[in-house]
Amino acid sequence: MGDDTDFLLGEGPSSGISVTLTAGTVQAIRERVGKHGVSAYLERAAQRQIERDNLDELIADFDKVHGQADPEAVAAKLTGPAPEAAA
Question: How far apart are CA 51 and CA 53, in angstroms?
Fold first, then answer.
């Protein structure tokens, strides 16, 4: 596989790499997915982290242009409207 080929996140052929993790992290992953599910688990985790990093960059760019969002307004959008008090 040449380094000049571009693939979208999660696409393309598999490629092996060496990764160093703490023993506790490896143990927790194996307990969750079994011995043979580690690669798939780490693939999904890496994809989610890249998506989060991309979102953080978009938010930072938005903040530069429009100013920082009101934390209370953001929290309200994330959690939905507050439940009405019982009458």
Answer: 5
